[in-house]
Specification:
By secondary structure, the chain is an all-alpha fold. It has 9 helices and no strands.
């Protein structure tokens, strides 16, 4: 059984030189390249894909991955704050039928709850909860795609010591996009500075990833 893990020990020497800090390799630090679920899945999926696709562009892998995950389409080169806001809102829109379906599912779950206080919850509050939850999905869709791009970019660097130029450009854009106030401000205030620092370090790695 393959027990490979992305780590300083298993990395290409070029990656070892630029990524000596533990956080780069963390499987649980959400900003780290391999720490989010989408980043980790993309990275390990790329390693497996690369075994039989050594000469193909990693962009092919990324496009197939995002299509399989069924995230709403987003232009990976987009940096316009207005369009990013529009995507977050529009990709979260749900129709009335979906709202009613989710409300029924929640009602059934609450009826079966041991806590009797859930049994007679107000319908208006329930509706608000469903809509509020859906609005978070737009931001999650964008974050998931950026994490996948970043995870794939760092995976190629860790495995091969260099990054395909098109993937490098996308990875730089994804990191810079996540540094935009419109996205940074979605995090708790006490985490924002840490995320900025880590993303900035990651940006430095990618900028210097391809040795001359």
């Amino acid at each position: 059984m393959d027990k490979f893990e992305f780590s300083l020990k298993t990395a290409h020497p070029h990656a070892q030189a630029l990524m000596p800090e533990d956080f780069y390799w963390s499987p649980i630090e959400e900003t780290a390249p391999f720490g989010s679920d989408d980043g980790s899945d993309a990275a390990y999926g790329f390693r497996e894909w690369r075994l039989t696709n050594k000469s193909l562009s990693p962009i092919i892998y990324l496009k197939e991955l995002i299509e399989r995950w069924q995230y709403p389409y987003f232009d990976w080169n987009e940096m316009d704050t207005t369009k990013i806001k529009e995507y977050i809102v529009s990709s979260a829109n749900i129709d009335e039928a979906s709202i009613q379906q989710q409300m029924e599912q929640l009602k059934n779950a609450m009826k079966n709850s041991a806590d009797s206080s859930f049994h007679n919850i107000d319908e208006t509050l329930l509706r608000q909860a469903v809509i509020s939850s859906s609005q978070e999905m737009g931001g999650s869709s964008l974050l998931g795609q950026d994490n996948a791009i970043i995870g794939t970019g760092f995976a190629q660097f860790a495995l091969e010591g260099k990054i395909d130029n098109n993937l490098k450009a996308l990875t730089i854009t994804a990191i810079n996009r996540q540094l935009l106030p419109v996205l940074i401000n979605r995090y708790d205030e006490d985490y924002q500075n840490k995320r900025k620092q880590q993303l900035t370090k990651m940006l430095g790695v990618i900028n210097n990833a391809n040795p001359e």
